[in-house]
Amino acid sequence: MKNELRAVSYNIRFDNPSDKQNSWVHRKMLVFSNISFLKADIIGFQECLFHQIKDIKENLNNNYEMSYDFIGVGREYVTKIVLIILLKKKKKKNTYINYDGNEKGEFSPIFYNTKKIELVHSHQFWVSETPYKVGSKSWNTACTRIVTWGLFKQKKTNKSFYFLNTHLDHQSELARSEGTMLIKSFIATLKPQIPLILVGDFNSNDYQKPIENLISSTIDINFAIKYIQLLEIPIRDDIAFQTLFNTKTIANCKIGPDSTFTGFDCAYSETIDYIFINQQFKAKTFVVFNNHPSKVTKNSTIASDHFPIVADLKFL
């Protein structure tokens, strides 16, 4: 409908052969089916390896008659020593190896429906004290983490909006807390009158500090200065934190379970995936899409260890 937008966040689980019956080759068709069913205008995926991204795009566009494109880069950097070894191994096969953080490692890509959405500008930064250094890590993070973001335009209404996607560390509470402050400070540099959506796997429950950082309206803007300096963005005199809202909390209609992470064996029940918006959107519906079989056994194959989450939004 006019003035409305469907946003999705979906951790699809990286292709790990040790997942056995839940490795990518066995469950990818379930993922494609879920995405096709949800008919999102824009999606933030987490844990995607490059071949998974290619699989998703090719299958949705060719087999489901969709029209998705994506933005994003791999989060890792291959050192020169490793590169030399890899090149020697691959030389006979004439395989090109990318070592600039373009295709290496996990992505947090943003897929958008090109029939409805136009990309205006995009970029990324690493969740670290050196945000533009490929593969950089800080704050005791176990893994390299990245934020992918873009400025988009809805074709039907000509309305612009920002969309940010991330996946924060699973081990370091400090890295998650500092990461959300880095993201919150980056958002403070954007125009507050432009609608904004932030999605991702934050590896935090909604009562923990990383989420409190994002939704708090009482943090002094002076705390943003050091993060904005890390991001190398000029500081405006009128800069202020934007108020962000958890769509699960404010949506008029909520459907599905509370938990978003279950594990492949459904042994977990945690809420760690979120869709946040600024005050330029209204959240109409929030859905945790429970697509697991009614009875999960050790031999079951399920789409992912996370449920996709969906927010139907209205431009204000």
From TrEMBL:
It holds the Pfam family Exo_endo_phos. Residues 8-306 form the Endonuclease/exonuclease/phosphatase domain. InterPro entries: CCR4/nocturin_mRNA_transcr, Endo/exonu/phosph_ase_sf, Endo/exonuclease/phosphatase. GO terms for molecular function: 3'-5'-RNA exonuclease activity. It comes from the Eukaryota. Gene3D superfamilies: Endonuclease/exonuclease/phosphatase (3.60.10.10). This is Endonuclease/exonuclease/phosphatase domain-containing protein.
